[in-house]
């Protein structure tokens, strides 16, 4: 994955996580935060409809589920079978592959087998650091556990928005695109995550006929759900300024002992390409999947679960802080937020305005995009949270969600509610009041104030 990352112009966020990022503690807001498992709202329990109000729209951002580490323990030849259907690594044909018993594979009689034998492949020896021998997983892909997590999100959404609120139709409509807008980043693990969420929301028994729902994606080069320094060089420059800043150097120094330990266990302590990062993207998936966190040939040299957790938290420092803190020489965090989150916030704002304009009470199927799902990455959720939420919300876990709901109060005024990790997210102080029933027009003006007016000019160096 390091190789891929180096050659990919786009900073793919999860891959970036390996370069070192760090959060402060999740603190008082989310004491039950678990980086391995996001918390979904649960009908009748943690989810409560807004009183005396009617739901007009909901948009959910979802981080993909649990994934395979971004690189390996050097020299590890254990057989790992975390991916109970490795379809995603080879088959992208329609209909999308889905884990767990679905019959919707392109061909149920063909299955993928990843081969990494040095006899058959002369590159195998040289590339041994970058693939898992004896595994049914490719580096970076969604695991079976990750598929199940995102399936569960779809199931929770069904319990709330179909069974409890009767907001979405019980059965998938003949033209599902009229009601469901589904989008992912152009990455397989978010695609399979979206497919699983959809399977949870409308399992086969609630689908009559052969209708297909679209999964919308933007070309990666102009993706707005991830940090995109290619489309927006200025954003890349602010980020790189933060990487080189004394604030970041101090952070690395503060965590140097743990970092060296992690690098030693991972076998990259003497590799200058990788030995200056906090290794969150390597150790967290290992922790979440209960894989060894010990050195391959020196099994007494181990990272504890607590240390793995800390490495992950500290790894997110870079991504979360460059959007929240101004440091000398790096550029304004307010501008970074504008360039990073603004283009996607425009989608959210336009969509809410579209719904408001089209909503004629109770006719959900005629309302503009009443249900939206964005299958994306940790940083996608975080950059939106950097605008709307209190700065110390925890880094989004696997299968974490941010949900925007639009409700119309009895008196006719519409309000927005924003949920993260299953509860109302603490609001950014600039919003001046809570996000449990926020006046929609004020909310829209606030997020629109982050939308670049002229992206080309604002992104220029
Ligand atoms: C990284 O590796 C280089 C080359 O082996 C070494 O000189 C350097 O001290 C290492 N850095 C850390 C932080 O371990």
UniProtKB/TrEMBL annotation:
A GO molecular function assigned to this protein is:
phosphatase activity
Keywords assigned by UniProt?
Hydrolase, Signal
Say if the entry is tagged with keyword Hydrolase.
yes
Query: Coiled-coil annotation: which residues?
Result: none
Q: Signal peptide: which range, if any?
A: 1-17
- What protein family is recorded? Belongs to the histidine acid phosphatase family.
The protein depicted here goes by the name: Uncharacterized protein
Q: What is the lineage of its organism?
A: Eukaryota, Fungi, Fungi incertae sedis, Mucoromycota, Mortierellomycotina
């Amino acid at each position: 994955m390091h190789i891929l990352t180096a050659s990919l112009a786009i900073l793919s966020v999860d891959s970036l996580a390996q370069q070192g990022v760090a959060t402060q503690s999740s603190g008082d807001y989310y004491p039950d935060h678990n980086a391995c498992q996001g918390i979904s709202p649960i009908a009748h329990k943690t989810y409560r409809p807004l009183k005396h109000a009617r739901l007009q729209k909901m948009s959910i951002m979802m981080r993909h589920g649990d994934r395979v580490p971004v690189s390996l323990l050097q020299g590890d030849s254990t057989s790992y079978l975390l991916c109970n259907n490795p379809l995603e690594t080879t088959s992208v044909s329609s209909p999308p592959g889905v884990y767990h018993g679905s019959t919707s594979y392109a061909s149920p009689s063909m299955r993928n087998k990843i081969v990494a034998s040095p006899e058959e492949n002369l590159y195998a020896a040289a590339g041994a650091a970058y693939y898992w021998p004896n595994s049914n997983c490719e580096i970076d892909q969604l695991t079976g556990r990750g598929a199940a997590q995102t399936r569960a999100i779809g199931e929770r959404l069904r319990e709330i928005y179909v069974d409890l609120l009767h907001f979405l139709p019980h059965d998938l409509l003949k033209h599902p695109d009229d009601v469901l807008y589904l989008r992912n980043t152009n990455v397989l693990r978010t695609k399979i995550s979206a497919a699983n969420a959809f399977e949870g929301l409308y399992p086969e028994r609630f689908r009559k006929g052969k209708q297909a729902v679209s999964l919308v994606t933007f070309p990666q080069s102009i993706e707005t759900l991830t940090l995109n320094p290619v489309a927006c060089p200025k954003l890349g420059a602010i980020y790189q300024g933060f990487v080189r800043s004394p604030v970041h150097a101090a952070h690395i120094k503060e965590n140097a002992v743990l970092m060296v330990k992690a690098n030693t266990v991972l076998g990259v302590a003497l590799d200058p390409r990788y030995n200056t990062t906090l290794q969150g993207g390597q150790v967290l998936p290992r922790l979440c999947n209960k894989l060894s966190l010990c050195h391959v040939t020196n099994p007494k040299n181990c990272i504890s679960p607590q240390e793995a957790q800390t490495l992950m938290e500290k790894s997110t420092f870079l991504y979360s802080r460059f959007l929240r803190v101004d440091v000398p020489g790096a550029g304004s965090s307010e501008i970074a937020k504008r360039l990073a989150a603004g283009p996607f916030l425009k989608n959210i704002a336009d969509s809410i305005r579209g719904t408001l304009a089209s909503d004629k009470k109770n006719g959900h199927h005629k309302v503009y995009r009443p249900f939206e799902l964005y299958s994306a990455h940790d940083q996608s959720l975080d950059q939106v949270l950097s605008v709307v939420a209190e700065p110390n919300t925890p880094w989004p876990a696997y299968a974490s969600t941010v949900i925007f709901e639009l409700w119309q109060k009895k008196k006719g005024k519409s309000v927005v509610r924003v949920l993260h990790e299953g509860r109302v997210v603490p609001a950014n102080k600039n919003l001046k009041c809570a996000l449990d029933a926020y006046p929609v027009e004020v909310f829209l003006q606030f997020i629109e104030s982050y939308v670049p007016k002229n992206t080309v000019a604002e992104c220029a160096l």
